[in-house]
TrEMBL record:
This is SHSP domain-containing protein. Keywords: Cytoplasm, Stress response. It is found in: Cytoplasm. It comes from Sphenostylis stenocarpa. InterPro entries: A-crystallin/Hsp20_dom, HSP20-like_chaperone, Small_HSP. Its main location: cytoplasm. It holds the Pfam family HSP20. Residues 40-154 form the SHSP domain. Belongs to the small heat shock protein (HSP20) family. GO terms for cellular component: cytoplasm.
Amino acid sequence: MDIRLMDLDTPLFSTLHRIMDLTEDAEKNLSAPTRTYVRDAKAMAATPADVKEYPNSYVFVIDMPGLKSGDIKVQVEEDNVLLISGERKREEEKEGAKYLRMERRVGKFMRKFTLPDNANTEAITAVCQDGVLTVTVNKLPPPEPKKPKTIEVKIG
């Protein structure tokens, strides 16, 4: 109900009314995803990957046609998150040429993978060949089983 209808249109009540409206708007905005989140979600959805497990490693394969190695970043965040990102830029238009159709994707791409506990983040290799990026994460050797400790029994 609008307080102005009750003949309470004083400066104090109108200020309270504006504050209440701002609070409602702020609550709506807090539940909406941020621009960064939406951009990252689109970049991740547009970057398909194959993940394979071998006895001694994990292999991530991503198609990246037309990209140079300087356009691709492979990083490890938070000790166990593999981040593959980069950007494909639009070619500069040449004088007199115009696009009739543009279907190739341009813009940022990104994928994040949570690595298992046995992934050796110190032994990661990345090779881009023929437009296919292959990132190999070696596995740590399995821990040796603990040997039972024998305690000598003394007679006292």
